[in-house]
Amino acid sequence: METIRIAATTKFTSEMEKLRRTGFHNSSSETSSSDEFDTLSIHVLAIIRDEIIGMIRLTLEPPSVLQTWSGWKAPIPHGEGVIDVTRGIVAKQWRGFDIYKLLMTETMIKAKALNAKIAVAPIEPHFQHRTFLSHIGFQNVGEPLIFNHPPIGDTVGQCLVQRLQKDFGKVTEVRAKIISGERMKNFRVVSTIELR
After folding, report:
1. What pLDDT is attached to residue 30?
2. How many angstroms separate the CA atoms of 179 and 185, rounded?
3. Pick from 39, 59, 87, 148: CA 20 to 30 A from residue 10's CA?
4. Domains of the chain, with CATH numbers?
5. Residue pLDDT, tens place only, 112-129
6. SS (H, E, C) 84-140
7. What is the model's pTM?
């Protein structure tokens, strides 16, 4: 049985950058995936055998990642109490085991621990986990728009909003189902993210 460790860090390492770059670009391109928000953020990690296999970035506003990427056109709340959830990625060889879903629930637990009131996120319109995100309280806001986030460039994204105080019960309920589910039967989850 494999152990998945969930941890949070403010450091953005070369290993994390490589996972994101190769995961997003489907190649070993040398173009860096790092941006100005990485050093201002907390990164929630999934780790197996000391290898980072997935991560999601949390940026407590200000500044606003989504407003910056959209040229201040995103129809979402921003400012104090808002946290941006971006750059979620799971290594290709670990996809299909609900690791993204586990990571997202752990990320929302961390967001609440940081006293965020509202979480905002962008997804591509046909993102495969959008139904899952609705199950943990994320709702569409407005129409899809263009986000310019280096090094990927222009991407069409749908804005999502989650009210952490209102929807937190959904997060913990779904997390428990993921951990006890069929896709996680060969994993033991050990998390350092505090449930408050």
Report:
1. 67
2. 8
3. 148
4. 2-191 (3.40.630.30)
5. 999 999 999 999 999 999
6. EEEEEEECHHHCCCCHHHHHHHHHHHHHHHCCCCEEEEEECCCCCCHHHHHHCCCEE
7. 0.93
What digits encode the pLDDT tens for the residues 12-36? 999 999 898 887 755 455 667 788 9
